[in-house]
Amino acid sequence: MSGPSLPAEAAPDRIAAPVSDALLERMMTLHPKVIDLSLDRMHRLLAALDHPERRLPPVIHIAGTNGKGSTLAMLRAGLEGAGTRVHAYTSPHLARFHERIRLAGEIIPEPALAGVLDRCVAANGPDPITYFEATTAAALLAMAEAPADWALLEVGLGGRLDATNVVERPALTIITPVDLDHQSYLGDTLGAIAGEKAGILKRGVTCIVGPQKDEALRVIEDRAARVGAPLLVHGQHWHAAEERGRLIVQDETGLVDLPLPRLVGPHQVGNAGMAVVALRALGFGAEASEAAVTRAEWPARMERLTAGPLVDLAGSCELWLDGGHNPAAGEVVAASLRALPPRPVHLICGMLNTKDIAGYLRPLAGVAESLTGVSIPGESATIPAEETAERARAVGLTADIADGVEAAVAAIARAHPGARILICGSLYLAGHVKRVNG
């Protein structure tokens, strides 16, 4: 988003390779002192780079509060399953900044990343620019100069003033479920937040609208009517549901019967529906739809860890990882846990102080037997482990603390062999877990 400092969940990588690390640190020093909500800085830098946003393959632009990454991952799997080459830009990353940029399916290599970052730093000069604006420009530059058939862009924050919202005419847009998050940046009501998300709508460009609450849907439909954007709305123009262990998606072109999504959780049915309807709107057939649901990978979203030092510490326990961090994500995680084969559930949780901790934990109180609070290593905005435990007790969870994730996993494994351990609460914590677990 142009203007305010990014929330800590999207801060720069700390373990990137030396050249790109130095360039990313340089970009942080250019952050504007006065906040203004506009895309002026982004447009200025893109003009200095000869407008890479105008040289991209056909773009699919994805906004929303929850499900953006999973929907993008399924859409990418579907497009690649149909034999096309796909660029993708996502945020934040888990272990390395490079994860944010995929060129024709592959994570951008260090020399290419360092090259586009260097060109962006040179083109921008000493002028103020936010970290996300500068790195988004670098991603657009990299994608404009590498051959591909499609480019998938995930909104970083909001939509209307997000740095990705510079493509004048995408091939398609998607708005995933909208909920309360980042209220200090986007507004304190669902309608206000939906208005920011709907800022990606473009005249004449179809938008796939995922499952929405009524207040959010009204705002999206009103914005679409004003700008002249056709909508394909969940519950009106398309439906997705699980029936007898299969995924059934029906839209205005017919019905498709597919395997259930590979990604874990009941919420993935709706995300898969958005991806499948998008593929069908673009003219792709059943092969792409099946690839979307069977081949997608999206780390740290109800991900089962099956190897590594932490898995060894867990012993007979299952070890899971999820980076969701808002109340809607708490609901989704709770539903996902209920859908798994029964096992006692024990949480290891670390969160940032910008989040609604009670709102996130409250749904989990009904499915977990205990919570162990941890502080997120290296994060100044982390909530201390003691405070996380206090907040957990306030919503009805039995809670304790540990010095770190490793100690928490080992303690739970000793006390509750065969349990299900979920590490949760922050993408920053998830990134730490990925690095620790190799």
Describe the structure in your own words.
The chain starts with 17 loop residues before the first helix and ends with a helix. Strands 4-3-2-5-1-6-7-8 form an 8-stranded mixed sheet, sandwiched between helices. With 438 residues, it is an alpha/beta fold. The protein is built from 16 helices and 17 strands. α1 (18-28) packs parallel to α4 (110-124), α4 (110-124) crosses α5 (131-144) and α7 runs parallel beside α8 (214-227). The longest helix is centred in the first third of the chain and has 15 residues, at 110-124. The chain folds into 2 domains: 8-295, 3-Layer(aba) Sandwich (UDP-N-acetylmuramoyl-L-alanine:D-glutamate ligase); 303-436, Alpha-Beta Complex (Protein-Tyrosine Phosphatase, Chain A), CATH 3.90.190. The protein has helices at residues 18-28, 40-48, 68-81, 110-124, 131-144, 183-186, 190-197, 214-227, 268-281, 286-295, 309-314, 327-339, 357-361, 385-394, 405-415, 427-436; strands spanning 59-63, 86-89, 101-103, 106-107, 150-154, 172-175, 207-209, 231-233, 239-243, 246-251, 254-259, 303-305, 318-321, 345-349, 370-373, 399-401, 420-424. The radius of gyration is 21 Å and the shape is globular. It is 38% helix and 16% strand. A hairpin with a 2-residue loop joins β9 and β10 (246-251).
